[in-house]
Structure formats: C-alpha cells, structure tokens
Amino acid sequence: MKPTTRGRVAFVGAGPGEADLITLRGAERLRAAEVVLFDSLSDPALRALAPDARWIDVGKRGLRRLPHVSSGGAEATEQAAINALLVEHAGHRGKRVVRLKGGDPSVFGRLEEELDALAAAGIESEVVPGVTAALAAAAAMQRPLTRRGSGRSVSLATAMTHDAGLVAGRHAETEVFYMAGKQLAALGRRLLAAGWPADTPALAVSRAGWPDELGSDHTVATLGDATVLHSGRPTVVTIGVGAAPLAGRTLGSDLAAGAAAAVERPAPVHRGRKIPA
Amino acid sequence: MKPTTRGRVAFVGAGPGEADLITLRGAERLRAAEVVLFDSLSDPALRALAPDARWIDVGKRGLRRLPHVSSGGAEATEQAAINALLVEHAGHRGKRVVRLKGGDPSVFGRLEEELDALAAAGIESEVVPGVTAALAAAAAMQRPLTRRGSGRSVSLATAMTHDAGLVAGRHAETEVFYMAGKQLAALGRRLLAAGWPADTPALAVSRAGWPDELGSDHTVATLGDATVLHSGRPTVVTIGVGAAPLAGRTLGSDLAAGAAAAVERPAPVHRGRKIPA
User: Fold this and answer.
1) Closest approach of chain B CAs to the CA of A18, in angstroms?
2) Region for residue A134 given its phi and psi (left: phi exceeds 0; alpha: psi -120 to 50; beta: otherwise)
3) Within chain A, which residue ranges are assigned CATH 3.40.1010.10?
4) Model confidence over A211-248: pLDDT tens digits?
5) For residue B138, which of B13, B243, B235, B19 has the smallest C-alpha distance?
6) Min Cα–Cα distance to chain B from A48, Å
7) What is the pLDDT of residues B38-77, one digit of tens each?
8) What is the pLDDT of residues B5-31, one digit of tens each?
9) Phi and psi at residue A122, in whole multiples of 5°?
C-alpha cells in the first residue's frame, strides 16, 4: 500500500534491558524520532538517545494518564489506544515516530496488530530487530542455547497464554519460556507432565541484560525453588541442553539436593552504559 | 575460574548482516579491541568500528592462509585452530580480543567450544548477544514470528545436522530453519512427512539484513521453487503461523499455482549504513 502521508513509524527492538543492547540502527532511528511511544519496562537511559523527542508512555500505567484513553484497562482497549496514538502522530500529524518494544518486536511483541493498524491507515512502517530475552539470558550466563551434537533446536515459548492459562510441552532440545516468573512451580509440574525427565537442567534468569540480573540453577523437578529468588522480576526459564553449564563451570549449585544457587553474572570485560554520542 | 592473564575475550554477536545491526555494546567492544577474529561472512563495514585492531580471518579460507594452521580443513582442526588463536592472543599476548560471530553467538554459533578453551586456559570472557537471523528475516518481511492467539511458540532449528543429514519436524506454531539454502526441496518433503499440511505458509529469506536481501512466499509443498531464487545465498526458511502475511499485505505471490514471488524488502524509513562515530 502506498503511503498517503509523510509520517512514518519505525518499530524498534530495544533489547532486553540495558540501553546499550539496542542496535546501532535502532539508536539511529531514536535519534531521528520526533515522537517515541514506549512501554514502562524500557530503560530510562534510552531517553538520552532522543532527548528532544516527545516520549509517550503507553505501558498500562502510562495509558491511564493519557487524556483521550478510556480507563477501562482491558487489553483490547489498551491495544486500540496504542494503535490510535500511532495513527494520530504518524498519520494525522506527519511525525517520525518510533514505537519502542522490549526485546525483539517479532517475538511476543504483539507487533501484528500495530502493523495492521498502520497498513489500514496507509502509513509507512519499518521493523528494526532487537536482542530477544532468551539470547540475552544465554549470553549473560554463558550457556549457549545450541550445543554441537546435542542441541539442534531451540524453542521460544510463553508459559502464559492469553486464554488457556499455563501451557508447557517438550518440543526442542532447548526450550525457553518467557513471562514465567509468577508460575515457576506450576511450570515445573507441567514440564514433568510433558515428559521432561525430573533431573533435566533448568536455568532461571531474571532481568537479563540489567546490572542486577540474576541466574539460578535448578532441575525441572525443583524449578519451584526459583520463585523466591526471582519474585516480581521479568524472568525467562531455559530447560534442557541449553540450560546445562559448560564443562568446569558449574555455578555452585547442588542439583541433587534441589538447592537453588543464585549466581552473579560472569565478570564482564568492560562494564558501563556508554552510549556513543 | 580466576583469570590468570590480563587478556580477555568478548564474543560479540555481529547480527545478521549489515554493520548497523550490531548492538551498541558490541560496537563498543570492537572499538576497544586490539585483535578481532572474524568469519568470512561478516560485513566489511564492521572494520570501520575497529580500524586499528588486527583483524584475523578465521573463516575456512582465512584459516588456510594462516602460517601455523594445518591445511587439513577438517571441522575439528578448524575449531582447534580458532581456539589456539584465542588463547595465543588473549592469553600469551594479553590482548583485548573480540571474537566476532554472525547473528547471535548462543544460537548455532559453536560458542561452547571456544568458551571451554578459554576457561581451560584461565582467560576471562564475556558474551555480547546479537540479532539472530530469524529475527532479522521476520523484521525485514514484517512477518512477526508470534501472533496473538495462534502463534505461541517459535522454534529455531538447523536443517542440516553434523552427522545425521537433513532433519525436520513439527514442534512449534512457527518454525525457522537456518542453513537451509542447499536443501529447500528436500526440506519441504521432510516437513510434509513430519505432518505439516501441504498448504502451510513457507517464507524463504536470504541475506536477511543486507541491502540485497530477498524474500519469497511458498507453501510447504512448493518450497523447492525457492531454490533458484536463493541459490548460493545464506537462507532462513520460516514455516507456519509466522510465515503468513499480515492482513492486506500479501506479496503478490500465487500460492495456489506454486509460483514463487520474489519480494523486495519493505521501503525502509531511513536507509544507509550510518555508524555513530
């Protein structure tokens, strides 16, 4: 569809947390933006990349503060409000808009609804990919998701579905569950029921990519032990081949006893949040 | 393990192609690097980020040109040569080394062998995640890998295994196959045998993230038609829910007739390869 206005929207994957895990292209789009729609989880440090843009919080709390948005709070209403804001700023006002999404926009980002709204309004759009949480967790803990000879596939899944509650299966050598934080014990039980052996390695990582990220080793049978450690934090859980520590680098956990061992992130080479000017 | 030298290695995901899909953190590590080990596929434009570093090509052809490396060319030999170079530069010479990997290091990056070699030598390491090819293909074609209500899981898999030849199953609502370029017809047949309906959408994308990237729409039954279009190019194939075009944006393909429709990437908002100085 041909664009009918000069406004446009770049959907940008912000990465899993810290501002410097955005891509150079994503940072460039932010620099050029006049309006940025962001969710509450985004790192405030990203604002330094677009200090003169108008930043609009479209997270749950942010939406409630906007004058034109109904306070109903149903998911469909929230999504409709975001769609309307995109069309208003890029379409009616002709602005360069960035829609910032945590992680990667194409993975659990509800991207299609916003793309559809823009297409219907004839507004040009672009998607800039980002680092999704599973990759950030694997990098931080130095647990590659694929292993030669034994890890040929990785599945990314949500533990929570929109309507069906908790779902878990056994589909790949390594399986990573997003949005699992509130249901770790139940997730472990579902995984056992799906046929994963009780002693399968399970790695829980919360706030992957942030300075206070935390990882802990468990098994499928003892995954519930992770609940207290990661309570209230965005958590991904890796199960199977990709959760196992590399040779000589167990993290002090006692899997047999089911003890959860919290591990600090590996010592980084250079730390800090330097963002190129 | 405590580091025994001041040298260190940062494994950096370069992203799927163009230099500006690396993360800010990855770019920063390149700027600080004294030695960069890279594979042949990396974008030459990345060199601008570390112009004073020593760049060593450890791709297949590059390795053969190095004086100390046997010309045997077996995979194990090649990996051993890379491990030895990492230990030589970061360990014996105490350099800041970047090991640049295409896409994300934790996904089909053979990361664990290099991490193991560094751990055995007591050399500090860090992993900086990157955009993996599946995400870049989804972004470029505006086909989100997950769809609300129908796309709850994504599987990333290699079509080719080290020893077992071509393997394909049906594990998730959306399945993305890496390194599938040479075997598209065979992959289609395996997918049919694994239970995918013949009319399941199949999207082939080659050189995702590059200016000459190419996408084409097929079905599982007609996937072989993609062979000519993507011949000789790194190709990922998306099957299932995440391969379907969004509403109102079919790409001119004629799936019923099995015709492959090559599509240019969607018009980008800003194009170019600007890299922050």
Assistant:
1) 10
2) alpha
3) 8-128
4) 889 999 999 999 999 999 999 898 999 999 999 999 76
5) B243
6) 13
7) 987 677 889 999 999 999 999 877 787 776 655 555 677 7
8) 579 999 999 998 889 999 999 999 999
9) 70, 30
Percent of chain B clearing pLDDT 90 (strictly above) = 57
Work out the average pLDDT over B208-235: 92
- Could you give the dihedral angle defined by the CA atoms of residues B171, B173, B178 and B179, in that order, rounded to the nearest 10 degrees? 70
Q: What CATH number was assigned to the domain covering residues A8-128?
A: 3.40.1010.10
CB A234, CB A41: distance < 8 Å: yes
Tokens 């077996």 — which residue?
Answer: B74
Is there a contact between A139 and B125 if contact means CB atoms under 8 Å apart? Answer: no
Residues 54-93 on B with a CB inside 8 Å of A are none
Residue in B178, B171, B189, B190 with CA at minimum distance from that of residue B241 = B171
Please list every residue in chain B whose beta carbon sits closer than 8 Å to the beta carbon of residue A113: 148
In chain B, CATH 3.30.950.10 sits at: 133-264
Per-residue pLDDT tens digits for A31-43? 999 999 998 767 7
**Are residues B204 and B184 in contact, defined by beta-carbon separation less than 8 angstroms?**
yes
Residue of B29, B140, B270 lying closest to A32 (CB–CB): B270
Closest CB to B23 among A20, A154, A277: A20
Give the ipTM of the model, two decimals please. Answer: 0.87
Q: Are B78 and B63 in contact (CB under 8 A)?
A: yes
* Token pair of A122 as six digits: 């004839």
The 8-class DSSP code of residue B105 comes to T
What CATH number belongs to A133-264?
3.30.950.10
Higher-scoring residue by pLDDT: B256, A75: A75
Distance CA B240, CA B173 (A): 6
